[in-house]
Each structure stands twice: as structure tokens, then as C-alpha cells.
């Protein structure tokens, strides 16, 4: 293969320190290289915006609850269907697209790597089956430990090393990437219909608090030297006044890692509410961002909501039931033995709802008030805040005060009394958007070590070229062009191969699944630990031998190996 | 050779603790299995080679010939139906959906004559459920409604509910109340703490009465509701409300009784109502070992759990129209591929007659009723015995079945991939 040369690219590559230069990018054997021999295929992109492939660090695309979201929602399936065409399979679904739907739509938006936000270990095999059926993106799975009995036992015994050993065994068994805590302790309490109302509540029967679980897991994560930090969905999601819980949680995070954050907070919009009821809910984005700005070792993603129909789905089972009691739509719940929970309900975020307007404003405020874009990544917690196809609109809102002012006229007129959004002048630039949609994710997830998120020689050749000429448009005025440009790449290149062009998917694709394997000393091998084995023999309904996800489920696995400091 | 932790590919319990002794390509003994499992592992009624009907007799043919003719029949059909799928593993089901997509066929699984109405109810109101281990470790009340696990899911009670000790239920049999609701006494009702006998067709009214009581509107309940006394209704409602963790299981006795999906909707809404007072969950007792897997696989590829029609190029779903029974009854279907199920034994007579009139091809290890309607049958390896792949337990937990020995039969995946390759080549 003589390779591929992208000529005249307007490159923004924050991790390589490139802030907008017209240059050529040479690609060979799936990697970025210094140059390619003559005879290479040439794509002249004539000054169009060229970024590393997009990385979504928190999205719900594959696995048990995602598929149940499809299963229970034929109305959503009808709302987004396309026919078989060329190499593209049939797709269905708007807020919860089928695996092909997710993959094709992400591809046409220039996204090449996706992290599934929540995988229950017991049901990991399902997530991996869908990963394999998602052709274009490299996939990673956050692995749920929030209600894990072995973890809570170790936390109670103040045994961080044992907690680390449980994580190491489990990630290796289920081929997971990182530690996810969803409403820590709350999912176990939900096994009895309860919940946690603060980080200092006590989990029934286990005598531990969410704060203890979070603190122990942050330390355990660093003992294992995992690529990513603890990935946390805080307690009290969606509850007026919950910003205090979030601030308390941020206060728990020590600074333990020089390379990246020590704590990643996900969909923080849902955790930044003031007030006491739905009647006086207000934005506390200023308090939250003040805390984030003073703690460079904490990173968050927005969890932006956008108006319209979507489906909420999370491991946070008790929260979904609360939400159901507000919406009276349909409700699914799925608790997972010894591990976690989950819930799903469809929602409609309305411009006529003051609460929804406040939520919408908070997400944008988080991004605009966080000084360092590396600390606030763009997300909707897809599909919870909105399906990911809304990202281009969010980018445009962040880049254009005029767009925000136009939106202001369309929403509940009382909104401005509850949020600071309309007093914020800041407009993000192309560089900041590049950080918030790929470079920041690569750094936060620890994926630069496998060549993700940048475009200098040696990197994976994942490239997104958008039909946007940064010198020729003013994003603060021409925001509709920003929306259109980020919705459809000219070319999306995955591992050196053009996979989508002008909104059309052009190849079948063959993705990889990225997972973490932390090597622990033999005395920390939980596979030989009598107490750990007993949990399988007595309490799980699946035999320990049948629990691990076999290699056959990862036909193109990429294993990130670490040595634990135990 | 003894193999441990073998997964049973019979019912939706997907027990994974069997010990199977194998001698060459023969199963010698099965430990831990129920009578159904023993029959599955030890039974031997396999068809030896592919066969084609010629008049009133059968001709042995090669796999290549059988697959080529099957492809030709499907390619020639205007309205092909690909039915079954619940008795094979996920990887084969996946090829099935892609085959339907490329052919513009209808693909449907056995849910269509089983828990299809349950799915319709879930699509209306959702499904508050859990994995079976939650029930095992926590439940102090278990309700079986229109289900007879002793006969149909023989180890359900010993592995997951009535007799199974769990972390918070150290002496399950004493600590757990079992309520059985049915139209007749069964082996299961005989061991219940409370048996509520409902008039046939009366389930919906009884569920409504329970919902009213749980909601605090008990004063409107008459002396008897469909054969159940007011006193018993209050007693059952009280047991459920005062449970710490209640688990409701329902079978086809509720799903296929008059009212169908409306019964299930009512049961789910009762569960939702109880969830406002305590912890309660509800789960269907799925029949085939991997019927839930067929729902899952169909859904992540096409968006819908069964009855998917690709004739328009997109995936179209309209149960009542795109369901197998309806397509066959309208005599719309002009070729049918049956994989890993036995519609001849389970479909209405008119549908079976139509299957006999059109070219029906069956991919199945065994001679069954459908064999007698089929034009071609292609025998394959048995998933869980001499083939392996992914299965989804009735609660959605995915488990990989094991291959106990290398036999001489190709498995479903191998046959379907060959079929798919021919069809794809022809369709370009």
C-alpha cells in the first residue's frame, strides 16, 4: 500500500500543539507517518477543518439496557429508519439507534472511538456482541462497580488493595476498560426499593457510604495504574438541590496522577441543580465550575440536554423510577445481582417546560464557565440528554452567543431568572471545540498511549475532515454553517481507510475493542480467593467458570496492560 | 470424560451447572439436569443426512445440494418467511437477520406464538424486572401466575426461587411465601402457600382487583371476582404489599389467556403500583432456551424483537400483520425457511397446511412434526451439545453454551453462512 496523503488540511491537533495550520497529513498502514512515497492516493481538502477522529467518552450505544431501550420502543425505531444501500445495512431508531445506526451516524459525524458508559459485568457478553456488530468505531466499556458486593466488603474492611484486586479480576474477566460508579451504593439500596440521598448515607446491610466507596475506588484505580480514572455518576442525579452532593463528591478527589485527572465526573448538568423542588430549581453551574476550575485533577463531561424526544437509560435504577413518577410514561428496570441496577424511560424535553429550559442552560454554562476546555468535555450522555446527532448544534451554541440569544426567544421566558447563561459572553473557538470533542477525551481516557486523539507521526490514522473553512466563516454569526459542517464530514478516516464520505458510509468496517488488563501479584489473584469464589458458588446464578467473556467475543481486541502497584 | 459447568440448552432457565459425561460423540450421563435436560442430552433422534421430498418418499442429498436448492427457492420467492430461531445460538440468529434483510423477507421467532403479547405489553408500559439472582438472594414473596414451573421449568424453583437459599434468605423455604395463580390445580399450586384459583379468562379482572386494593380502593371489590373471594384478594394484596422483595413470574397461561397483552399490561402495572410501596419485579417465564436471544439479536440489528418485515427495504414491524401466523393464514408466504423450531407442532392447522403447500425447508437436527410438511430438511449439530454459541437466559443474562465434542454435523452458523454467501452473490 503506497498510502494516503491528505493535502492542504487546516489542522487543529491540540495534543501535538497544532492550533490551526494548513499542512499535509501522510498515512500509511493505518498510522500517521512523516511522508508517503509518490503513488499514494491524494485527497486535496483545500483548507477544510481537519481534526483527529472524534472520541465520545460517555455514550450509551451497546448492551443490555441499550437494547432494551430499542426493544420497548417501536415508536423510536420507526422514527429513524433507513433502507439497505450499498454497503450500509438497514438502520432503525432515532434516540436509540440499532448498532449499525449508531455506527453509521457517528461515522458521518467524524467519530471513530466510543466509550459505552455502563456495562454490568454479569451481562458483559452482550455488550461485546454489540461492539462486534458496531462496524466503524473502536469501542470501550466502562464497567459498573457501584453496587458490587466484593467491593463493598473490601471498602468496609478498609482494604484498598483487595478492592483493586477485585477490579483487576473483573476487568480481565469481562474485558472492561475502566471503573464506572453509578450512584455508588444507591443501586444496592434500590435492591430493596431504597436509594442514597447523600455521600454520607449508609448502604443497607453493607455498612459503607458512597463517599467511602468513591474514595477507595479512586485509590484502587491508581494502584492498578489503569489508563482512565474512576468514572463517576454522582449520587442524587436529577434532584433539585443536588449540587451540594456534587460539590461534596468533588471534594473527595485527591490528586494522584500526573498524566491525567484522578476523577472523571460524567453528565454533570444533571448534578448541578439548586433549589428545593421542581418549582424553584435553578442553575448552580457557577458553584460547580468554580470547584472544577480550582481542581485541575477533576474532569467532567457536560451531559447537555437538547429539546425534543429522547430515551433516558442508566444503571441508576432508583433515579429512573423517580423520573417515571414525574413523566408517567413507560418504565423499565433491570437490577443485576451482586453488581448494579438499571432503568429506562422515554422523555420529551420541552421548550415550554421551565425545568427543561433550566437544564438546557446549565449544560451550556458548565462548558462556558469552565476555564480550561480539557476539564469539560462535550457530551449529552447520549441518549439521556439528547441523541449524539445533536452534538453539532451544541458546538454551534457554544461558539455563538447570537445563536444562544435566538434560542432564548424560543424558550420559557422565565428561564433567565434561574440561570446565568445569558450573561455569559464567551464564545468557544475551533481549538477549544477540538479539545472538547477528541483531544480532551483521549487524554482523560488515557488513550494517547495507543495513538488516539492526535495526528502526529505514530498516531492511529483516525481523521475527521469537515466541510468548514475556519478562515472563511465566523462561527459566532454563521452558526448554521457550523451545525451543517459538523453534522457531515467530507471524509472520515478510520485506521487509514476512508469509511465515510459526504454522509455516506463507504466500507463495511472492522473495529477493535479496547480493554484493560492490570497484572497483580499472585496473592491478589481473586480467582483463587475463597471468599470471592464463595460469592459465585452461593450467590451468583452463573457459575464462575461460565462468567468470563471468552476471547472469541473480541475478534479484534486491543489489550492495554498495566502492572499494579500492590 | 466428564465435563463440568455445562449449559443446558432446553428451557429459558439456562442452567449452567450440569455435569455431562461424554464417550466419543455420545453423551453417557447427565448430572444435575432435570428430566427435560436428560432427554435433551441423552435422546438420539437425529436425522443423519439432508433429505429432499420426492412424492411420498425422501431422497438423501448432500449438504451442498440442499443448501443450493434452499438458496434457489428463497431467491425465487416473492414473500419468503424465515421462522424459528429460538433453538439456535445468537451468532446463527444474526446471520438469519442479515439473510432476511438481503432477501427482503419476513423474519420471525417463536415469540410470535408464545410471549409475543408480553412484548406488546412491555412496548406499552415497560418492564420492571431483574436478574434471577436478585430473586434468589432477596425475595421473600414469589408469585407464579399462569405458569407451572414444576413441569415446564423444572429447576426454576430450586435454582432461583422457592427452594433456593440466598444471601438475605438463608432458609428460603421457610422465609419465602409462594403464591400460585392459575385456572386449575397444578404440581406448582400444590406447593404454594397461597393458591388463587381464577376462572378461565378471569385473569384481567383479578389483576385489576389487586391493583385497586393496592391503590387503596378496595371498598369497590365485590364478594367474588372471577372465582376468587374478596377475602383472598385482600390477603394476597397484603402479602405482596408487605413483602420486602416481591418477584412476579408469569407464563403463557397469562399471556395466551383471553386478554393476552392486556393481561400482561395489567400485571406490569400491578408491579409498578406495588413498587410505590415496596420492591417488586416482574419477569416472563421464557420457554425455549434462547428465545430471548432471538429477541435480543433481532433488536440490535433491526430494531424490533420479532415479526420484522424487510420487504420495503427498511425494517417494518406490525404484529398482527407481519407475524408468521398471519402471513401464513393469508396464504401470502410462498417459501418458508424454518430454523431450530417446530411450527408444524405449534401453529394453527391452516398455517401448517399452507406450509405443506409451499416449499418449506427446515434446518433442524431432529425429525419433528415440521419434517412431515417440509420439502427439504438439513440436519445440523445441536447447540449446547456439539455446537457452541451465545444464549440469553430468560432474564437477559448472556451465557456461552459449550461444545461437548466435535461431531460430524455442521452447525447452524456454518449452514446459514453458506446459504447467505450464495444469496449475496446472486443479489450482488
Structure description:
- The complex is a heterodimer of chains A (566) and B (428).
- By secondary structure, chain A is α/β, with parallel strands linked by helices.
- Chain A has two domains: 4-51 and 454-505, Urease, subunit C, domain 1 (Roll); 53-60 and 111-450, TIM Barrel (Alpha-Beta Barrel).
- Helix content of chain A is 30%, strand content 22%.
- In chain A, strands 6, 7, 8, 9, 10, 11, 14, 18, 23 and 24 form a ten-stranded parallel β-sheet that branches. In chain A, strands 1, 2, 3, 4, 5, 19, 20, 21 and 22 form a nine-stranded mixed β-sheet that branches. In chain A, strands 15-17-16 form a three-stranded antiparallel β-sheet.
- In chain A, helix 6 (160-174) crosses helix 8 (210-223).
- The longest helix of chain A has 16 residues, at 354-369.
- The relative contact order of chain A is 0.17.
- In chain B, the strands form five sheets. In chain B, strands 5-4-20-19-18-6-7-16-17 form a nine-stranded mixed β-sheet. In chain B, strands 11-10-9-14-15 form a five-stranded parallel β-sheet.
- The N and C termini of chain B lie far apart (47 Å).
- In chain B, helix 3 runs parallel beside helix 17 and helix 9 (203-214) packs across helix 10 (230-241).
- In chain B, a hairpin with a 2-residue loop joins strand 2 and strand 3.
- Chain B folds into two domains: 47-113 and 289-427, Rossmann fold, CATH 3.40.50.740; 116-284, Dimethylsulfoxide Reductase, domain 2.
- Chain B has helices at 35-42, 63-76, 90-103, 116-125, 132-138, 149-152, 156-159, 172-175, 203-214, 230-241, 252-255, 261-275, 291-302, 324-329, 343-346, 349-357, 412-427, and strands at residues 2-6, 18-23, 26-31, 51-54, 57-60, 80-84, 106-109, 128-130, 141-145, 177-182, 194-197, 224-225, 228-229, 245-250, 279-284, 308-309, 316-317, 335-339, 360-363, 376-378, 389-392, 398-401.
- Chain B is α/β, with parallel strands linked by helices and 428 residues long.
- The radius of gyration of chain B is 23 Å and the shape is globular.
- Strand 16 (332-335) of chain A pairs parallel with strand 8 (128-130) of chain B.
Amino acid at each position: 500500500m503506497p498510502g494516503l496523503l491528505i493535502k492542504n488540511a487546516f489542522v487543529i491537533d491540540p495534543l501535538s500543539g497544532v492550533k490551526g495550520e494548513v499542512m499535509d497529513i501522510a498515512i500509511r498502514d493505518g498510522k500517521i507517518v512523516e511522508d508517503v512515497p509518490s503513488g499514494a492516493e491524494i485527497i486535496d481538502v483545500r483548507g477544510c477543518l481537519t481534526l483527529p477522529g472524534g472520541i465520545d467518552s460517555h455514550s450509551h450505544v451497546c448492551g443490555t439496557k441499550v437494547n432494551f431501550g430499542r426493544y420497548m420502543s417501536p415508536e423510536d425505531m420507526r422514527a429513524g429508519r433507513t433502507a439497505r444501500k450499498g454497503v450500509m445495512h438497514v438502520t432503525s431508531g432515532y434516540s436509540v439507534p440499532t448498532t449499525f445506526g449508531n455506527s453509521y451516524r457517528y461515522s458521518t459525524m467524524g467519530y471513530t472511538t466510543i466509550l459505552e458508559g455502563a456495562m454490568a459485568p454479569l451481562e458483559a457478553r452482550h455488550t461485546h456482541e454489540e461492539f462486534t456488530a458496531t462496524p466503524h468505531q473502536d469501542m470501550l466499556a466502562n464497567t459498573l462497580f457501584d453496587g458490587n458486593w466484593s467491593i463493598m466488603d473490601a471498602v468496609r474492611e478498609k482494604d484498598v488493595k483487595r478492592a483493586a484486586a477485585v477490579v483487576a479480576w473483573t476487568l480481565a474477566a469481562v474485558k472492561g476498560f475502566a471503573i464506572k460508579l453509578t450512584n455508588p451504593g444507591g443501586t444496592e439500596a434500590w435492591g430493596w426499593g431504597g436509594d442514597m440521598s447523600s455521600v454520607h448515607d449508609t448502604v443497607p446491610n453493607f455498612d459503607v457510604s458512597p463517599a467511602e466507596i468513591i474514595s477507595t475506588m479512586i485509590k484502587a484505580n491508581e494502584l492498578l495504574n489503569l489508563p482512565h480514572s474512576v468514572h463517576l455518576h454522582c449520587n442524587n442525579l436529577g434532584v433539585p438541590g443536588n449540587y451540594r452532593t456534587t460539590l461534596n463528591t468533588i471534594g473527595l478527589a485527591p490528586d494522584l496522577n500526573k498524566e491525567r485527572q484522578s476523577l472523571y465526573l460524567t453528565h454533570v448538568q444533571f448534578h448541578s441543580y439548586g433549589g428545593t423542588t421542581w418549582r424553584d430549581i435553578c442553575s448552580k453551574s457557577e458553584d460547580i465550575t468554580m470547584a472544577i476550575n480550582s481542581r485541575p485533577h477533576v474532569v467532567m463531561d457536560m451531559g447537555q440536554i437538547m429539546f425534543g424526544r429522547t430515551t433516558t437509560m442508566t444503571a441508576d435504577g432508583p433515579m429512573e423510577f423517580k423520573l417515571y413518577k414525574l413523566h408517567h410514561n413507560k418504565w423499565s428496570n433491570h437490577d443485576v445481582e451482586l453488581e448494579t441496577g438499571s432503568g429506562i424511560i422515554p422523555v420529551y424535553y420541552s421548550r415550554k417546560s421551565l425545568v427543561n429550559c433550566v437544564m438546557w442552560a446549565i449544560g451550556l454554562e458548565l462548558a462556558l464557565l469552565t476555564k480550561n476546555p480539557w476539564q469539560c468535555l462535550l457530551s449529552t450522555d447520549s441518549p439521556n440528554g439528547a441523541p449524539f446527532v445533536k452534538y453539532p448544534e451544541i458546538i454551534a451554541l457554544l461558539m455563538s452567543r447570537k445563536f444562544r440569544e435566538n434560542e432564548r426567544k424560543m424558550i420559557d421566558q422565565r428561564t433567565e431568572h434561574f440561570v446565568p447563561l445569558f450573561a455569559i459572553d464567551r464564545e468557544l473557538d475551533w481549538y477549544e471545540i477540538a479539545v472538547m470533542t477528541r483531544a480532551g477525551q483521549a487524554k482523560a481516557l488515557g488513550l494517547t498511549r495507543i495513538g488516539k486523539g492526535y495526528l502526529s507521526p505514530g498516531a492511529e490514522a483516525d481523521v475527521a475532515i469537515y466541510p468548514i473553512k475556519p478562515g472563511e466563516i465566523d462561527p459566532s454569526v454563521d452558526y448554521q454553517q457550523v451545525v451543517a459542517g459538523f453534522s457531515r464530514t467530507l471524509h472520515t478516516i478510520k485506521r487509514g481507510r476512508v469509511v465515510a464520505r459526504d454522509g455516506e458510509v463507504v466500507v463495511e468496517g472492522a473495529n477493535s475493542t479496547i480493554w484493560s488488563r492490570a497484572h497483580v501479584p499472585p496473592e491478589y489473584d481473586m480467582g483463587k480467593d475463597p471468599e470471592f469464589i464463595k460469592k459465585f458458588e452461593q450467590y451468583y446464578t452463573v457459575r464462575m467458570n461460565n462468567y468470563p467473556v471468552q476471547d472469541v467475543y473480541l475478534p479484534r481486541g486491543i489489550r492495554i496492560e498495566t502492572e499494579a502497584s500492590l | 470424560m466428564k465435563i463440568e459447568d455445562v449449559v443446558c440448552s432446553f428451557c429459558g432457565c439456562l442452567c449452567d451447572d450440569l455435569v455431562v459425561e461424554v464417550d466419543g460423540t455420545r453423551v453417557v450421563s447427565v448430572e444435575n439436569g432435570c428430566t427435560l435436560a436428560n432427554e435433551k442430552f441423552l435422546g438420539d433422534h437425529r436425522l443423519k443426512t439432508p433429505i429432499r421430498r420426492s412424492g411420498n418418499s425422501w431422497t438423501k442429498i448432500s449438504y451442498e445440494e440442499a443448501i443450493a436448492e434452499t438458496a434457489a427457492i428463497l431467491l425465487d420467492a416473492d414473500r419468503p418467511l424465515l421462522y424459528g430461531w429460538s433453538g439456535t445460538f445468537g451468532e446463527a440468529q444474526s446471520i438469519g437477520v442479515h439473510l432476511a434483510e438481503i432477501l427482503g423477507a419476513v423474519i420471525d421467532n417463536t415469540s410470535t406464538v408464545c410471549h409475543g403479547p408480553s412484548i406488546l405489553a412491555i412496548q406499552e408500559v415497560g418492564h420492571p424486572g431483574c436478574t434471577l439472582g436478585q430473586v434468589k438472594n432477596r425475595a421473600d414473596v414469589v408469585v407464579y401466575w399462569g405458569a407451572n414451573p414444576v413441569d415446564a421449568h423444572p429447576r426454576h424453583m430450586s435454582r432461583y426461587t422457592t427452594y433456593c437459599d440466598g444471601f438475605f434468605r438463608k432458609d428460603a423455604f421457610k422465609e419465602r411465601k409462594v403464591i400460585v395463580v392459575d385456572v386449575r390445580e397444578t404440581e406448582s399450586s400444590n406447593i404454594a402457600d397461597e393458591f388463587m384459583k381464577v376462572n378461565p379468562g378471569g385473569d384481567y379482572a383479578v389483576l385489576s382487583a389487586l391493583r385497586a386494593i393496592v391503590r387503596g380502593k378496595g371498598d369497590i371489590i365485590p364478594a367474588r371476582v372471577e372465582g376468587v373471594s374478596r377475602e383472598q384478594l385482600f390477603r394476597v394484596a397484603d402479602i405482596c404489599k408487605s413483602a420486602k422483595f416481591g418477584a412476579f413470574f408469569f407464563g403463557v397461561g397469562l399471556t395466551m389467556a383471553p386478554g393476552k397483552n392486556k393481561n400482561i399490561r395489567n400485571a406490569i402495572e400491578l408491579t409498578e403500583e406495588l413498587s410505590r410501596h415496596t420492591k417488586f419485579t416482574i419477569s416472563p417465564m421464557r420457554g425455549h432456551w434462547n428465545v430471548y436471544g432471538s429477541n435480543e439479536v433481532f433488536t440490535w440489528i433491526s430494531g424490533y424483537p420479532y415479526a420484522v418485515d424487510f420487504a420495503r427495504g427498511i425494517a417494518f414491524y406490525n404484529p398482527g400483520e407481519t407475524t408468521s401466523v398471519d402471513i401464513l393464514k393469508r396464504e401470502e408466504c410462498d417459501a418458508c425457511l424454518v430454523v431450530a423450531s417446530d411450527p408444524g407442532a405449534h401453529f394453527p392447522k391452516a398455517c401448517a397446511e399452507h406450509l405443506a403447500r409451499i416449499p418449506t425447508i427446515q434446518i433442524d437436527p431432529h425429525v419433528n412434526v415440521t419434517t412431515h410438511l417440509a420439502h427439504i430438511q438439513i440436519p445440523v449439530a445441536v447447540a449446547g451439545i456439539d455446537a457452541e454459541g451465545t444464549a440469553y437466559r430468560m432474564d437477559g443474562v448472556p451465557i456461552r453454551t459449550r461444545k461437548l465434542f466435535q461431531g460430524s454435523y455442521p452447525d447452524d452458523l456454518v449452514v446459514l453462512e453458506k446459504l447467505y454467501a450464495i444469496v449475496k452473490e446472486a443479489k450482488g
